[in-house]
TrEMBL record:
Residues 2-60 form the Glutaredoxin domain. Pfam families: Glutaredoxin (PF00462). The keyword Disulfide bond applies. Electron transport system for the ribonucleotide reductase system NrdEF. Keywords: Disulfide bond, Electron transport, Redox-active center, Transport. The gene is nrdH. CDD domains: NrdH. InterPro entries: GlrX_NrdH, Glutaredoxin, Grx-like_ET, Thioredoxin-like_sf. Belongs to the glutaredoxin family. This is Glutaredoxin-like protein NrdH. PANTHER family: GLUTAREDOXIN, GLUTAREDOXIN-LIKE PROTEIN NRDH. It comes from the Bacteria.
């Protein structure tokens, strides 16, 4: 299960979801501006920028095509 914690008008968020789609990976988007619990969760993990991607035990912030590519390999 891949979750993308996003914000409106976020260029890196859009790039991340497009890359996930291009790799054929299913994901869920949660808008951090609408979900206080989600914002608290990513803040507690130390993240200060969007998107925050959580995929199982792995998580990161920002547009990371290298890590998205790794998810595509492990899900194949």
């Amino acid at each position: 299960m891949i979750t993308v914690y996003s914000k409106p008008a976020c260029v890196q968020c859009t790039a991340t979801t497009r890359a996930l789609e291009a790799k054929g990976l299913a994901y869920t988007v949660i808008d951090l501006t609408l979900d206080e619990a989600a914002m608290a969760k990513v803040t507690e993990l130390g993240y200060r920028q969007a998107p925050v991607v959580m995929a199982g035990a792995q998580h990161w912030a920002g547009f990371r095509p290298d890590l998205i590519g790794g998810l595509a390999v492990t899900s194949a």
